[in-house]
Structure formats: C-alpha cells, structure tokens
C-alpha cells in the first residue's frame, strides 16, 4: 500500500513536471526551469537510468523499449545526457547527432517531439 | 543494486512530494544545434562499420559529433560511442609527453622526443645486433590508420629484415580471412551493406551485432520492420542478446556445436534438392583436406550424410530439433536472397576457418551469392582491420596488397616496388600473435613495439603473457593516447595523436576506404604515428649503419606530418602496392576520397570508377571492372581471386569438431565472453566518457536464471569464476541470455578481479592462428551478497 501511495505521489509529481516541460517548450524562458531528481551517491550514479526508471516511470520505459530507439539500443543518456549535462527536454543538437538532415528541415519553431511522440518517436502526432 | 533501486524509488517519491532537496536537473537546455564554427569530415573509429561522421569544432575545441546523412554506410546514424568520442580529445588523462624508465620496477620520467626516439632506436638496434632481426617485433592494431600500419611494416620487413609484424586483428578476424581465401579464393566480402536492403533472409550467427555493430544492425532491423512478413531473421547463438529481439527464429545450441548445425543445414539442402545445380556446375568445386584435394558432388553427399538433422540436434542441444534445422535450411535456401552475417562467435574458435567455410558452403550450395541481397558477409570488429591490416600487410604472413610473404614472386615484387635489394624481406613469415607473445615469454623477442592496442588485457589467458611482458630483458615501447594495462608493462610510452588529430584512411568491413582529416592539433607533445615511425627509422639507419632502412622512409622525408606525410604514404601504397591486385585502390586518391561523402569500395583501379563509389559487388561482370578484365569465359560471374587459380569457389568437406575445452565434472559450465554496446574493447577510451562508463561501469557475469536458482545466486551477488587458468570475482546478472549451463562475461573491464581474459583459453585455430576466446570451461560459486564496486581505469 505504501508503495502504491508513493508511486501515486511520484506520478503526480512527474505529471506536474511534464506540464511544466510542455509550457517551457512553448516559451523562450530566460532561465531554464529545472526538475528535481533525488540526490544520488557516486555509486548510485553508476546505475543505468533505465534500471530505476523501468519501475519509476514504467510507461515511459515501455514506450522507449518498444520503440526503434529501444530496439536499436539508443539509451536515455544519448538524448537526455548524464548528471552533469542532463536535460529533461533534450537540446536539439543531440538529436542532430543522428538526425542532422531532419533537424535542418524541421520547422524552426518546433521540437522533434512536438510532432513525433516522445520516447516512441513513431509517426507524426 | 536492488537495495539502491528501492531506495531510489523511496527517495523519488519523497522528493516529488516535497521538492526540497535533490539534484537540479534542467528541464530544457537549448534548442539550437551544437554550436560549432566548423565541421570536419571523417569516420568513426569505434567498430568496423565505418560510420561517416563530422567533428564539430568551436574555438579550436571539439564540441560535438554528428553523422553524415549522405553516407551509404550509416545514412547519418551513430551509436553512443560515435556521438561522444569527441570528449576524448581534450581529456585530462591524455598522454602528452614521452615517458621512460630503464627498469620496469622504476617510475616513469618525462623525456624529450629526441631522447625517446634515440632510446627506441638504440634498443631495437642492440637487440638486432646481439640476437638477430627476429628478436624484434611490431604488434599493431586494426585501429591504426592504413598509413601507419603500412609504414611500420615496411620499416620492419625491408628495414629491419623481420616479418615479426602482427596485430590485434589476428584475435578477431583471421578466421574470416582464412574462410574467404579458402572458399572464394580472395579475402573480404563479395557484397556490401547495400545488400541488407535487398535481403529477404538474414542468417545472423555468432554475432551480437545490435551491440557490436549497432548502426549496421539498425539497417537490418529497419529492413525487418518495414517488411515483417517478407523478411525472416534467423539468429543462431547460444546466448540470447539484444540482436535476438528482431529474430523470427532463435537457434540456441551448446557453444561450439555450430559446425554440426551448419553441416546439418547443408544435409537438408542436399537431401531435399534445394541446391542450385547451375550455380554448382558453373562456379564450384568440392575440396577436402590439407592437400585441397578435389572431390565430386557425390563424395560431398556421402560426407554430408553423416550430419542428419537428428544427429546434429543431439550434438547441439539447447532448443535445436531436427524439424527446426530443416525449417531454417529451407528458409535459407528458398528465400529470394539470403544474407549471412557473423563475427567473433564464428571467428574466435579453434575451428574458426572451418566454421567460416561451412557458412560459405550454404551460400555456394544454394547460389545465394553475387545477386542483390545474397551474400556471405563477415562483419569485422575494428575500423581498419580490413583496410590497414588485411590489405596493408599488417600480419606476419601477408605483405601489402594481399600478397603472401612466402610466395617468392610476390615478395620480390614488393622489394622492387620499394626499391630495396631482393632478399631483403625474409621468405619466412614471422610469429603470429600467440607465438609472438610466447616468444616474449621465452625471451626470444627482446624488443617489441606495441601500437594502439593493449595485449596485456586483450590476449586470452593474459596472465601467462603478462609474465613475459614484465621481464626486465624485454624492452617494450607502447604508442597510445591513454594509460592501459599494457603501458603498465612498458619501458617507453610514446604519446600519439588521436583520431581527427591526424589524417589517414580506414577501410571498413565492406571494402570501403574512407579518409579522416586532421581537424585539431593533438594535445601537448603527442605526435602522429607516421611521424614517429619515420623519425625512428632515420635513427635506426644510423644505429645499424644501414642505408636500406633510410631508403624505406626516403620518399617521406621532410613532409609535414598532419596531411602531406600520410598522403605520400597512401599514394605510395595505393599507386604502387595495390596496382594490379584484387584490392586495387589506385583510383582512391586523397583528392577523390575528399570529394565523396563515404569513400570508395575497391576494386577501384581508376579515378573515374572511384568517383562512382567503386565496386558494390565483386566478381560480377558489369559491376566489378576486374571481373571483366580477368574474365575467362562469358559467364556473368568471374571468380578471379588470387588464391584460386581455377577461378572456382570451393565447397569444403569440413567435419564437426567441438571446442578445445568442454565442460566436465570439475568445470561444468561453458564460459563465453563478448562486448557491450557502451564500451570499446578494453575501455581505455570509452571508460573515460562519463555517459558510457555509467551505462556499464563494470563487467558482470550473466547467468541463466535456472542455473542461478540452483546455485543460490541472486542478482548482484558476487560470484567466483574459476577456470584452469585463473579466477575472476564478478557481480551476477541473472538474465535469460546465456543458455542453461553457460555463463557470459564482458571483456572490457580492466579491474584485475574482473578482467576476464585472465581466465580465457589461448588455444588457437591451426589455420588462422586465431584464439578461441569464445569458449572454455569454468565453474562458478556464490561468494557473497552484493558488494560496492568501483569502475577501474589504469592511470599513471
């Protein structure tokens, strides 16, 4: 029961974060907003993101795991970075590493996930 | 790890509710593309695929890497290693000054290049004067540029008069070379990556290409997902890996029994008359034994009758049934186009050449060759194992341009082309890798130059060879960019320029040569290897008072090392040494390579042909200019390979033979080793990229859940792994990957407790001399619950 409660609280929190992300993507905020992640020890930072997020955010994990990115082993850090350079909403430059042409041709006022659902990256919304 | 995760969940929940403490992670950084002043084109160096990349430079510093969408290798895609390796160029651990110690017991001290090169020359010269030319050796790498391998081997062979020229490709693709030469008469694949988009059946055996060749795997995955009904993927591997996720059929057999499986597939093809009679009649002969005796199809049928699916299923175990063998043989034979793909699971075996032959046999029997989508395609592990080492003369038995050392005519041809006296290159091949390090153990080799590789970690049964490398009477020079387990045993460490800090060519798996241009200066006093080799040769010429050594580098004297020097070396190699050979690269000049987004596939005898991209498929008239040039009849395929004077493809009668060491009562498990996607080889580079090290901070031992339950091993428990050679202590990953009775360990970890090559076996294929890394016997035991572990890297 405690676990279920904890997860409910967690998802509420993530929902709020997601709302904030959506908002942020539509405005050019001067100072980037930030998300809170539990403080981790150096050892805990050696646990791959997906190991915990499989349980913390199972929907996102499943979306990714079953996506082309998941099948081809494109991992969380390739888009989101690691602790020193983490971004909930990845900089487009990271997409451009593999999708340089698409990024160049995409509308300048939109991010990739505005049209392709984040983590699934299937077809256009 | 389980505790940490629970703790993480707890803390995450608390934090999200209160938002009081924790790490601030920015939601959004910046939508702009990586901010670079300029992008410089080159090739990734972190596997054999040859992905084309551009390095982004801002204010003289590398800031990003992106793929080149126009490239026919990767179409713009990269894996995590490819997108992040720019971080290594300014890494604080880079070796930036020559370091020396007389005795391996001493600490290193910084010295000047002048002193370093003098010491390097004196030590090699002393050894040659006192013990003869074969007391010195060069051990190179499939990651060295072609210009580097070519120049080093020229100095060693014609300058120092020894064929003791080897390299780590012996450890990964020598069996593939043996297979191609004995089956097709010529090294390297007939087809190309472009066959992937035209194949209908993929037979992936002994390869976890999803992790070892991720960007090429993407193409196979795409082909399958775009044509789910038309395309069948068969994955044959004792371990389920990420590659298996796209498979329609997974063949899981006991390690080392695949020779029986492959012969049984051939049995079905013959029994059910699924073979292509026209192809066999027109292009193939049947061969047996060391004498390569020609036999008839009837003899082959008789031979293969011993490999009924029933018998093979008994040998193979796992999920292999007679019906499953029949099913995959039928799919293989009847698919509109079948492409086989394999890597180390086939090559790193005591019968690796035979295993290669048996895959080729299936293609020859069925005529699944030379057509779009039909090919028998070996994946090479390193970026320049093909171009630099197989083609450039980087192994003890081959000279540049696919010329065997022992053939007098070809050896003299090389001597003439180099302008050195005939007889200068010894007729006898040098030591192959295991023999070379055995000779180090025995004190027969007194001075060895190890370039761009770490045999102290990557040799099988490495403790045995580290003892020799630690000898005080063996002088070891290491050229590298970071400290490694091998620099720990060096006398002289020479800091080298990294990728994009120098110019040169890599030749990838599909016969494709691609140029990487120098974009930035190397840090500190690090130098390109071509400069180091040239200057060393000049000092050797003085020490040994031998003008022929100077002659080896004379065409390159005074040239600027960043571009002009490698260009001159490439020009000599391609225009002189590949002229008239099957890997003719005369058309692939630096200028041509710079004009194309993705280089040139040989044969490319002229600039006109090279500018079209070269040859997509060998041996096919109209597609391969040499097929027309060497045609002996009007048939559409012309197999002009230098090793088969009959212009035929050879179907080999190869019996089943198991591994050198099979499990028994004392050591009841199969131990196999391999790679993970985040790390490259010994992790001396990828371990220094935070994202990659965190993704895979230490090696695990993968254990099948049934075995783990039986032995009381839980995830994260510390497990003792013992073989007849030594032991490791590794954390457990309980995982439906390896089959029951088998464990699997990643080999990148350089921590002594987790360095798996301390326990692997150094038995090797008698033909290719490639060791059987993939199979040995071990026992395992739970030592304790989870222990805090730290990633480990050698530092000075």
Tell me the layout of helices and strands:
The complex is a heterodimer of chains A (125) and B (796).
Chain A: H1 2-26, E1 34-37, H2 49-56, H3 58-65, H4 68-71, H5 76-80, H6 92-105, H7 112-115
Helix pairs in contact in A: 2-3
Chain B: H1 2-18, E1 23-26, E2 38-43, E3 52-58, E4 61-67, H2 80-84, E5 99-100, E6 109-110, H3 113-131, E7 136-140, H4 146-159, E8 165-167, H5 174-184, E9 201-205, H6 209-212, H7 214-226, E10 232-236, E11 249-251, H8 258-271, H9 277-283, E12 284-288, E13 293-295, H10 297-304, H11 309-316, H12 322-334, E14 338-342, H13 344-347, H14 352-366, E15 375-378, H15 385-390, E16 398-399, E17 403-404, H16 408-418, H17 433-441, E18 447-451, H18 455-458, H19 462-469, E19 475-480, E20 492-495, E21 504-507, E22 512-516, H20 529-543, H21 547-553, H22 564-577, H23 590-595, E23 600-601, H24 607-611, H25 625-629, E24 649-652, E25 669-674, H26 690-695, E26 701-703, H27 705-711, E27 718-722, E28 727-734, E29 742-746, E30 776-784
Parallel strand pairs in B: 7-8, 7-18, 9-10, 9-14, 10-11, 12-24, 14-15, 18-19, 19-20, 25-29, 26-28
Antiparallel strand pairs in B: 2-3, 3-4, 5-6, 5-20, 12-13, 16-17, 21-22, 22-23, 25-30, 26-29, 27-28, 27-30
Helix pairs in contact in B: 3-20, 4-20, 4-21, 4-22, 5-14, 8-11, 8-12, 8-14, 11-12, 17-19, 20-21
């Amino acid at each position: 029961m405690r676990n279920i409660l904890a997860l409910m609280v967690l998802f509420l929190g993530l929902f709020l974060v997601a709302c904030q992300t959506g908002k942020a993507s539509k405005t050019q905020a001067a100072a980037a907003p930030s998300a809170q992640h539990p403080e981790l020890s150096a050892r805990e930072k050696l646990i791959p993101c997906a190991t915990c997020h499989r349980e913390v955010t199972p929907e996102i994990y499943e979306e990714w795991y079953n996506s082309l990115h998941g099948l081809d082993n494109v991992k969380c850090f390739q888009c989101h970075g690691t602790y020193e350079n983490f971004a909930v909403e990845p900089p487009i430059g990271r997409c451009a590493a593999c999708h340089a042409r698409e990024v160049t041709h995409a509308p300048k006022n939109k991010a990739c996930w505005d049209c392709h659902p984040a983590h699934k990256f299937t077809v256009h919304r | 790890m389980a505790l940490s995760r629970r703790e993480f969940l707890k803390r995450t929940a608390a934090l999200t509710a209160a938002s009081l403490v924790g790490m601030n992670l920015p939601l959004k950084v910046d939508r702009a593309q990586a901010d670079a002043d300029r992008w410089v084109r080159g090739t990734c160096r972190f596997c054999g695929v040859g992905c084309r990349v551009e390095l982004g430079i801002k204010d003289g510093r590398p800031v990003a890497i992106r793929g080149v969408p126009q490239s026919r290798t990767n179409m713009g895609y990269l894996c995590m290693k490819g997108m992040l390796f720019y971080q290594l160029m300014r890494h604080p651990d880079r070796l930036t000054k020559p370091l020396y110690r007389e005795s391996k017991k001493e600490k290193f001290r910084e010295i000047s290049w002048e002193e370093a090169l003098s010491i390097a020359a004196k030590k090699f010269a002393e050894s040659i004067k006192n013990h003869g030319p074969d007391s010195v050796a060069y051990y190179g790498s499939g990651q060295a540029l072609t210009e580097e391998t070519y120049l080093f081997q020229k100095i060693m062979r014609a300058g120092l008069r020894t064929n003791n020229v080897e390299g780590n490709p012996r450890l990964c693709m020598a069996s593939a070379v043996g297979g191609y030469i004995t089956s097709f008469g010529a090294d390297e694949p007939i087809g190309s990556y472009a066959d992937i988009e035209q194949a209908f059946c993929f037979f992936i055996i002994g390869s976890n290409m999803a992790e070892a060749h991720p960007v090429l795997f993407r193409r196979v995955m795409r082909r399958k997902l775009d044509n789910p009904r038309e395309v069948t993927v068969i994955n044959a591997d004792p371990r389920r890996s990420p590659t298996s996720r796209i498979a329609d059929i997974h063949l899981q057999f006991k390690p080392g029994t695949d020779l029986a499986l492959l012969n049984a597939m051939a049995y079905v093809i013959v029994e059910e008359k699924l073979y292509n009679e026209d192809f066999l009649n027109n292009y193939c002969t049947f061969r047996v034994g060391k004498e390569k005796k020609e036999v008839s199809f009837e003899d082959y049928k008789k031979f293969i009758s011993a490999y009924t699916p029933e018998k093979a299923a008994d040998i193979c175990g796992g999920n292999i049934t007679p019906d499953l063998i029949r099913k995959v043989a039928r799919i293989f034979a009847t698919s509109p186009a079948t492409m086989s793909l394999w890597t180390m699971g086939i090559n790193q075996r005591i019968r690796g050449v035979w295993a290669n032959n048996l895959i080729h046999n299936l293609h020859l029997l069925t005529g699944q060759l030379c057509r779009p989508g039909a090919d028998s395609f070996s994946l090479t592990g390193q970026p320049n194992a093909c171009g630099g080492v197989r083609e450039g003369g980087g192994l003890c038995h081959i000279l540049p341009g696919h010329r065997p050392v022992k053939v007098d005519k070809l050896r003299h041809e090389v001597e003439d082309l180099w302008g050195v006296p005939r007889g200068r290159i010894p007729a006898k091949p040098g030591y192959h890798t295991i023999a070379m390090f055995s000779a180090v153990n025995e004190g027969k080799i007194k001075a060895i130059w190890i370039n761009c590789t770490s045999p102290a970690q990557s040799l099988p049964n490495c403790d045995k060879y580290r003892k020799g490398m630690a000898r005080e009477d063996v002088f070891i020079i290491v050229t590298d960019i970071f400290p490694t387990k091998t620099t720990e045993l060096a006398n002289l460490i020479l800091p080298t320029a990294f990728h994009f800090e120098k110019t040169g060519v890599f030749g990838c798996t599909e016969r494709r040569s691609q140029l990487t241009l120098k974009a930035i200066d190397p840090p500190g006093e690090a130098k390109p290897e071509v400069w180091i080799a040239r200057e060393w040769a000049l000092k050797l010429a003085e020490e040994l008072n031998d003008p022929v050594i100077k002659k080896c580098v004379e065409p390159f004297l005074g040239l600027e090392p960043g571009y002009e020097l490698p260009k001159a070396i490439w020009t000599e190699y391609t225009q002189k040494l590949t002229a008239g050979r099957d890997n003719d690269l005369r058309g692939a000049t630096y200028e041509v390579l710079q004009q194309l987004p993705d280089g040139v596939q040989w044969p490319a005898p002229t600039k006109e042909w090279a500018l079209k991209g070269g040859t997509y498929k060998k041996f096919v008239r109209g597609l391969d200019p040499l097929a027309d040039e060497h045609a002996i009849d009007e048939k559409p395929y012309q197999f002009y390979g230098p090793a088969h004077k009959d212009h035929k493809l050879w179907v080999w009668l190869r019996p089943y033979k198991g591994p050198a060491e099979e499990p028994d009562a004392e050591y009841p498990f199969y131990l196999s080793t391999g790679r993970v996607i985040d790390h490259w080889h010994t992790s001396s580079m990828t371990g220094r990229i935070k994202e990659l090290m965190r993704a895979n901070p230490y090696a695990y031992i993968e254990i099948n859940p049934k075995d783990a339950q039986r032995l009381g091993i839980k995830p994260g428990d510390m497990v003792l792994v013992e073989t007849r050679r030594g032991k490791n202590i590794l954390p457990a990953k309980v995982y439906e990957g390896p089959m029951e009775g088998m464990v699997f360990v990643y080999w990148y970890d350089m921590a002594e407790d987790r360095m798996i090559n301390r326990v692997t076996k150094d038995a090797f294929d008698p033909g290719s001399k490639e060791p059987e890394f993939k199979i040995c016997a071990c026992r395992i035991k739970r030592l304790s619950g989870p222990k805090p572990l730290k990633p480990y890297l050698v530092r000075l």
